[in-house]
UniProtKB/TrEMBL annotation:
The keyword Lipoprotein does not apply. Residues 1-31 form the signal peptide. It comes from the Bacteria. It comes from Streptomyces yokosukanensis. This is GH18 domain-containing protein. PANTHER family: CHITINASE DOMAIN-CONTAINING PROTEIN 1, CHITINASE DOMAIN-CONTAINING PROTEIN 1 FAMILY MEMBER.
Length: 374
């Protein structure tokens, strides 16, 4: 794997869900690696979904340095794939002291903020949200527990969306499982303040939340977050490999059975379909085999996976490696496991979401990864 930017590591930092999937995910180690859930293939989902409209599409864009796959994001979205969809560039980072840092192009040349970059994003999408990220509990707490820093952040975020003409703000604060009750309360207060500020100018607020299976999986409360005035809750329904149990192959990123259970719980908490967005992974990973979840190289783009030992585009090989219960392509070589999603896998995952009644999907992420065939 090439040099990894902090942004690329982020989506790996907080993915545990306490409830562990059972033995259905632990099939024997063979060339076509363990089947996560063979009872829900795309064909069955497609048969059941009738003529329902395909989910509306969104995608995140993260900043990086020249030569990194994320730099391909601009070329990708300029092909018109999200002309009627949503683009979400990560222009903001929360510093350890709880203040915001605007990630301008002089700091991150690829996909960083500039007036020209924001204008280009706006020209190639129907809606746009600027993402602000905080990836650990201490950083989140430094912002949400301080009335002064909350107020300053609300002012800065609102000012930028006004200046760019963007639709709104996407809040990506993570490490949910370690939050205290006080931090969750401060977070909800911050969201309510930001929602009021954005709504006063006709803007919107998105919030990224964890994949949960039941009440109490984390301090993050779907219902309470929606009550703050959030316009859409985005569930990051991926990263299951970090819960692999025992010395076996690392699990798939988004196995169908787990995805289905996460979606069903989210729908029970957010019954308004237009307020619920489900995250769809387009990336891959590389990990030790047997699995060591502390050594997973996460969010590896397909453009990097395709250069790894044993990668093949031969249709027969790809078919033999595709896991029916996740639609991901997986193989082992030299004590490592490789997992990725190709275009066919993206189509199958989208079809599966459609069959679950999902109407909005957000892809992590543009930049060296596959896209849907439509």
């Amino acid at each position: 794997m090439p040099s990894t930017s902090p942004q690329r590591r982020r989506r790996a930092l907080s993915r545990p869900v306490r409830i562990v999937l059972g033995a259905a995910l632990a099939a024997s180690a063979v060339a076509c690696l363990p089947v996560a859930d063979a009872t829900t293939p795309a064909s069955r989902s497609t048969h059941q979904q009738g003529k329902a409209a395909a989910p509306a599409l969104q995608a995140w864009i993260y900043p990086g340095s020249p030569g990194e796959p994320t730099c391909d994001a601009v070329r990708e979205y300029r092909d018109g794939r999200l002309k009627n969809g949503v683009l979400k560039p990560e222009y903001w980072d929360v510093k350890s002291n709880g203040t915001l840092a605007l990630q301008t192009t002089d700091l991150v040349p690829c996909n960083g903020y500039s007036a020209a970059n924001a204008s280009d994003v706006k020209a190639h999408s129907a809606e746009q949200y600027t993402t602000v990220s905080a990836m650990d509990r201490a950083t989140v707490a430094a912002l949400v527990n301080s009335p002064a820093r909350r107020a300053a952040a609300v002012e800065q975020l609102t000012a930028l969306v006004k200046r760019t003409g963007f639709t709104g703000v996407d809040i990506d604060f993570e490490d949910f499982w370690s939050w205290s009750a006080a931090e969750e309360k401060g977070y909800e207060t911050f969201l309510a303040q930001l929602a009021r500020s954005l709504h006063a100018d006709g803007r919107k607020l998105q919030v990224d939340g964890p994949a949960e299976l039941q009440d109490g999986d984390s301090p993050f409360s779907f219902a309470k977050v929606i009550k703050t005035g959030v316009d859409q809750l985005v569930i990051m329904d991926y990263g299951r490999q970090f819960n692999t149990d025992g010395a076996e192959h690392c699990w798939a990123i988004a196995p169908d059975k787990w995805v289905r259970d996460v979606v069903r719980y989210a729908q029970s908490q957010v019954p308004d379909k237009d307020k619920l967005v489900i995250g769809l992974p387009s990336y891959g990973y590389i990990a030790p085999d047997p699995c060591d979840t502390n050594k997973v190289q996460d969010t590896v783009p397909l453009s990097t996976i395709s250069k790894q030992p044993g990668y093949s585009t031969d249709p027969a090989v790809v078919r033999s490696r595709r896991e029916p219960g996740s639609h991901e392509v997986r193989w082992t070589r030299g004590g490592r496991i490789y997992d990725y999603t190709d275009r066919a896998g993206m189509d199958a995952k989208l079809s599966f979401f459609k069959g679950l009644g999902v109407t909005h999907v957000s892809v992590w992420a543009l930049g060296g990864n596959p896209w849907f065939s439509r």
